[in-house]
């Protein structure tokens, strides 16, 4: 009689545990469909308590945790890590088909995102090089290629977008600085010419002619206002050198011819702009012709 009671209790307990296990697994699968991954993990862990070392429950739990890890990596824009996690989820045997399908879609998405990241980084790097070469307008034109791409504003490219915004701000500040410096230089020159003219007026017609020649014409004043070169009044000795040697006037003249021949606008560049072009071309291991074609056109 006692044996029958014990046996009946054991059977009843086993049956109850089996039902609890099945309920936990069913609830876990439902939670996965609803994308409630935290709840799903809890159910699968509960199933493991009802049936220790159960391979199915463990597979579902591990697969869920890896998928969540992939999602977290996506949010952190660690796309390489996310791709690895999704790949593991996709190839899981005897696991959740729901997670397999989602991981497959995510893998396709990550592939596109990583390709976009490579493209966006290339354009951003090009714009940064143009900024360093003091070609602020050209740099902004390159940045426009990024900002005009609707995908660039997606959250996956948040860091690159912030860098592009900062670079555009720097370009705008650089352009403003150049115009201001050029305007100040033009004003100083005009003022000097006016003073000379006034002083010479008392000495005769010849002096007047000389002072008029020193002042700027209306077209020259306009050119000074629109001047896009860099300010040469604060150029250091090092900024005038290439490989430790001073860049000569002859080298600058020759470089201007090369830049014009390559499609650049050397006539609109100051001597220091030409020096910078020579320095940047040397730094990048490019001929001045190729450098002009890539960054100065």
Please give a structural write-up:
There is one protein chain. With 297 residues, the protein is mostly helical. The protein is 75% helix and 1% strand. It has helices at 2-33, 37-50, 55-75, 79-90, 97-132, 136-147, 158-200, 205-214, 218-225, 249-261, 271-284, 288-296, and strands at residues 241-242, 245-246. The chain has a two-stranded antiparallel ribbon. Mean pLDDT is 80; it is low at 193-217 and 226-234.
In short:
This protein is mostly helical. The chain has helices at 2-33, 37-50, 55-75, 79-90, 97-132, 136-147, 158-200, 205-214, 218-225, 249-261, 271-284, 288-296, and strands spanning 241-242, 245-246.
Keywords:
single chain; 297 residues; mainly alpha; Serine Threonine Protein Phosphatase 5, Tetratricopeptide repeat; two-stranded antiparallel ribbon; 12 helices; 2 strands; 1% strand
Write the layout of secondary structure elements.
Elements: H1 2-33, H2 37-50, H3 55-75, H4 79-90, H5 97-132, H6 136-147, H7 158-200, H8 205-214, H9 218-225, E1 241-242, E2 245-246, H10 249-261, H11 271-284, H12 288-296
Antiparallel strand pairs: 1-2
Helix pairs in contact: 1-2, 2-3, 3-4, 4-5, 5-6, 5-7, 6-7, 7-8, 10-12, 11-12
Biased composition (Low complexity): 176-219
Region (Disordered): 174-223
Q: Helix segment count?
A: 12
Which stretches are low in confidence, meaning pLDDT under 50 for 5 or more residues running?
A: 193-217, 226-234
- How would a textbook summarize the main sheet? 2 strands, antiparallel
Q: Work out the radius of gyration.
A: 36 Å
Helix content: over 70%
